[in-house]
Structure formats: C-alpha cells, structure tokens
Amino acid sequence: MKILLVEDSRAMAAVMSVRLASFGYEVSVAENGEVAVARFAEVAPDLVLMDIEMPVMNGFEATARIRAIEATQDWAWTPILFLTASNTQENLITAIEAGGDDFIVKSVPEAVLQAKMKAMARIAALRKRLSVANRLLREQASRDGLTGLCNRRHMDLTLDLAWSEARSSGAPFALLMLDIDHFKKYNDYYGHLAGDDCLRTVAQTLASVVDRCNSERLTDGAFAARYGGEEFAVLMPQASAQAYERVAHGVIEAVRSLGIRHERNADWGVVTTSVGGAFVPAANDELMHVFRAADERLYAAKAAGRNRAVLS
Ligand SMILES: Nc1nc2c(ncn2[C@@H]2O[C@H](COP(=O)(O)OP(=O)(O)OP(=O)(O)O)[C@@H](O)[C@H]2O)c(=O)[nH]1
After folding, report:
1. Ligand 1 binding site (Cβ under 6 Å of any ligand atom)
2. CA angle 144–205–310, rounded 5-degree value
3. Percent of the chain with pLDDT over 90
4. Cα angle 242, 248, 252; round to 5
C-alpha cells in the first residue's frame, strides 16, 4: 500500500515514516497541504495521512482540493485519515465534514496504528479491484463481442464529438461504409459459424488497413467500427482526400486478396466487399447528410457489380 504522509514536523514525519515502513508500506512525505495536493497527483497513493495545522496550506484545505481532483475522474476515492493531536468529538466531526474518512491521534499505540492500517489496506485492495472491473466494463461496453472492433454505440458517441470538433475548426472529415458482398449467400452455403469467422477476418483486415494509415500518419485517429450485421464504418477525422481513397481501395484489395472462398459470390469466387464513402473537405453540413451520401454510394457500388468503392 502506498501512503502519502502529510506532516510539517520533520521529527514527527520521520517517526511516522519509520513506523509505517516497518509494517511494509511505501511512504512518501509532503511537508504541507500544497505539496500534498501536487504529490497526490504524482504518487496516486492508496491512503493519505493528513496533518491539520501546517504552514502554506492546512489539511482541511488540501483535502478539499484532493476531493476536487478526484471529482474530475471517473471513479476515485482515496481514504484520507487526519492526524490530530487530541481524540475529541469535535475533531472527529470536523475531519469528516472536511472530506476525511477518519482520524487517528499522533500518539496512537503501535497495535492500534497497525490495525487501522490493515483496514485501510483492505480498502485499497478493494478500490484496485473495482477500478480494474470498471475499466473492463467500459471496454466491453464500447467493443463488439464478435469482431473486437468498436461497436455502434461507441462509434455514435465518438462520431458526434469528432464531427462537432471538425465543424468548429472547418477541418476535413471522411466516412466510409463497407459491406461484405452476398454475405447471406455465404452464410447459407458455408454455415453461420463460418460466417462468424469470415466477419472476424474481414474486421481484422479492415482494422489493420486503418491502423497502418494512422501509423504512417496519413490519418490521425481514424478508426473502424462494426456498424451492424455485416456492415462496417470507418471514421476519418482530419483525413486528406488521398488518405480517404487509400483506405477505401486498400481495404477492398486487402479483403479480396485474403482469398476466402465464396462460391456464391459469382463474379469473384472469393469474399469481397463494397464501399461507399463521403469526403468533406471542410466540415460544415449536417452529419446526417454525410451518412446518407456514404450509404447511397455503398448501394451504387453494389449495383455496379460489387468489389469496388464509390467515393464521389
Ligand atoms: N454469421 C453471421 N451472419 C450475420 C451476422 N450479422 C448479420 N449476418 C448476416 O448477414 C446477412 C446480410 O444479408 P443481406 O443484408 O441480405 O446482404 P448480402 O447478402 O450481403 O447482400 P449484399 O449486401 O447485397 O451483397 C444476413 O444473412 C445476416 O443473417 C453475424 O453476426 N454473423
């Protein structure tokens, strides 16, 4: 457990540090409230032991600031124990009112200090588990279970934000809609499980084309999402016209060259995709129109024989 000990008396800080270190805890010391607030952000402690009277900034003020920092984060609550000189009812009430969780007197007997720290270590372990679970839940809520791509919900949220940023700066913006050709026939002929494998492979191929463009800095923050059944979308904020075309043609070629047999995709014999796109040189329109344009072009690509992109 990492403890941030906030104590202006060097002698007291030294004594407490030795005692806490002897229980196996990692101790970092701040000599006043202001230093504690800065150190809190650096150290991310599991527990704060906070003196009350200190120069520069007292313990109550520092606690209020730490709680304000935590309020800007998704989930955070670091236990704060006040270190007081006397064990009075007023001290307890003031400590809790100030955002603290408890208090201990500085002269606390060894066994009591050790027992309190044990209880705090349990809370620290629980917080860690909660924070890991929270992160996993967040990840799962934004991913499509079958393909691992971002899901429609995450795409919609990100898209609204990216579009309003692009509109406020008049930046370029591109959207691609991609659909596997004759996928119903693929399912009917090869079975639904094979269909799932095909969806996963196409999704990975699409993601790697988009990732390559990001890593070559042709795009910045472009990402692919599963939009629905066998339909995918690629969002390309800040994309140039060249990057837009490169991703569209790149993914069609990459999927076709996988050579996944598709007897019922008569013209090609392998799994292919069709793409419709919309490129806006300076975002100013309604996002809905961008979607509509990409969708209409996707239908045009299908009508023109599939395995192709219609981009304008
Ligand atoms: N295996 C599998 N199939 C899916 C999944 N989601 C949607 N599908 C199938 O995708 C097929 C989509 O069929 P259609 O919308 O008719 O499109 P299509 O057959 O690809 O025809 P075109 O788009 O015109 O080339 C349907 O058979 C759906 O059952 C999935 O998660 N797994």
Report:
1. 146, 179-185, 187, 192, 195-196, 199, 229-230, 302
2. 95
3. 62
4. 140
Tens of pLDDT, residue by residue over 16-61, are 899 899 989 999 999 999 999 999 989 889 899 999 888 999 999 9
Separation CA 164–CA 146 (nearest Å)? 30
Q: If you measure from the C-alpha of residue 158 to the centroid of ligand 1, how many angstroms do you get, rounded to a whole number?
A: 25
Examine the predicted complex and report whether its ipTM is higher than 0.95. yes
- CA of 249 from ligand 1 middle (Å) equals 22
Considering the domain 2-136, what is its CATH architecture?
Answer: 3-Layer(aba) Sandwich (3.40)
Q: Which residue's C-alpha comes closest to atom 27 of ligand 1?
A: 184
Instruction: Kindly list the domain boundaries of the chain, sorted by start residue.
Output: 2-136, 152-310
194 CA closest ligand 1 atom index:
1
Q: Which two tokens stand for residue 186?
A: 């693929």
CATH number listed for the domain at residues 152-310: 3.30.70.270
The packing angle between helices 59-71 and 33-43, to 10°, is 30
Active site residue 230: yes
What's the CA-to-centroid distance between 141 and ligand 1, angstroms?
23
User: Which residue has its alpha carbon closest to ligand 1 atom 15?
Assistant: 184
